[in-house]
Design brief:
The longest helix is centred in the first third of the chain and has 16 residues, at 34-49. With 388 residues, the chain is α/β, with parallel strands linked by helices. It is 45% helix and 13% strand.
Length: 388
């Protein structure tokens, strides 16, 4: 059996679903639609820092002198953050914005420079910037020596990949002058924040792209200080909260892995009688397992995979083949609801008490101002009743 959960859940709901599956049912076959938006960033941060740690706050965006937005239509996808950026620009007109996106989106309205990059060439552009920083002597050597491993090999690989700015311009489909301006601005501006989202993450090389961004900040020591750092902005209201409680199939609560020590620690804290001992099926693999009969029961919470997962034909075939599909949802007419054997009416935003964690890792407390209608129940309550 498996759970497929969602960044629309509150942290408490997320936590209980993971505790039930990983601590009591005894498998880790619980994954989340955050897999689609954030798993690349999670892997990039873990590879760079050893933990899934976002070292930037929203205030850093307002304190930066240069904000580079990569693969993020912030104006549409994160409108509150975008309004803060607009306000910061109005307060400090000298602040600069670079938008790297193949499309000209609404976010480009605040751009001092828009780089309509050829799809798939992000790493080339970013590695070219790393080589440029090294050639201009703008590497923070004391920071690198104290905190960074493998730096010289990384710079050499970046030089080999990018070769020269003319080569970068040709392959990225950009004017040489625009690339040079971007490189010069980043080189000269210490208080720089790089903000990225799904345009980088949702790629076969999404983790490498995230690390290419992080490397720029490690090379220049622009991290852990006001107005600077690599900032992956999450795709859903509580994607970060899910990451904190081990919402992904390859993690345990509190950003822990499936090492013997971590399994023992979480098991003792949960007083769990049947801890999972290895990672479970990730989102796409989970639905393929449903289609071929390895997963015979699935509980889906607060998401619509028949519409939102890649290769929707395969997902619909999986849902159709699965003997038991349970759906907790606040709306009865979704694509996935058509495949449900059991529909559990769930409370929704404005009806629930609990917490979410936003992109900067700040926990927000929310209080319901409406009573759940009809037979709707909170997800944590439903999970607890099933567990009993």
């Amino acid at each position: 059996m498996a759970f497929y959960v969602s960044g629309q859940l509150l942290t408490e709901d997320y936590y209980l679903a993971n505790k039930l599956m990983k601590g009591y049912i005894g498998a880790a076959n619980i994954d989340t639609n955050s897999r689609l938006c954030m798993s690349s960033a999670v892997a990039a941060y873990k590879r760079a820092f050893g933990s899934d740690t976002v070292p930037v706050s929203y205030r850093d965006l307002e304190q930066a002198d240069l904000v580079v937005l990569i693969g993020s239509n912030t104006a549409w996808a994160h409108p509150v953050v975008f309004q803060r950026l607009i306000a910061a620009k109005e307060a400090r007109p000298e602040m600069r914005f670079v938008v790297i996106d193949p499309r000209r989106t609404a976010t480009c309205d605040i751009a001092d420079l828009h780089l309509p990059i050829a799809p798939g060439t992000d790493i080339l552009l970013l590695n070219g910037l790393l080589a440029h920083l090294a050639d201009r002597g703008r590497i923070d050597r004391s920071f690198v020596e104290a905190h960074v491993e493998g730096f010289d090999a990384t710079v050499e690989a970046a030089r080999h990949d990018s070769q020269d700015i003319e080569n970068i311009a040709q392959r990225c489909g950009l004017p040489v002058d625009d690339i040079q301006r971007f490189y010069d601005w980043f080189t000269a501006t210490k208080r720089s924040v790089s903000l990225w989202s799904q345009g980088l993450n949702q790629s076969a090389s999404g983790t490498d792209k995230g690390n290419a961004v992080i490397n720029l900040h490690l090379a220049t020591g622009r991290i852990g200080k006001p107005g600077m750092g690599p900032f992956s902005i999450t795709g859903q209201p509580n994607a970060m909260g899910g990451r904190e409680v081990g919402g992904l199939a390859n993690q345990l609560a509190a950003h822990q892995d499936f090492t013997p020590a971590d399994i023992d620690r979480v098991g003792r804290f949960w007083q769990a009688p049947n801890m999972a001992t290895e990672p479970g099926l990730k989102a796409v693999d989970l639905f393929e397992a449903m289609r071929d009969g390895r997963i015979k029961a699935v509980w889906i919470m607060a998401t619509n995979p028949a519409f939102s997962l890649p290769d929707s034909t395969t997902v619909r075939e999986a849902l159709d083949a699965c003997p038991l599909v349970v759906l907790s949802e606040c709306h009865g007419g979704t694509d996935t609801a058509r495949f449900a054997d059991v529909l559990l009416p769930a409370s929704t935003w404005g009806e629930r008490d609990g917490t979410v964690t936003n992109s900067e890792r700040c926990i927000s407390r929310q209080r319901g101002f409406l009573q759940p209608p009809g037979e709707a129940r909170h997800d944590w309550w439903t999970i607890t009743e099933v567990a009993r």
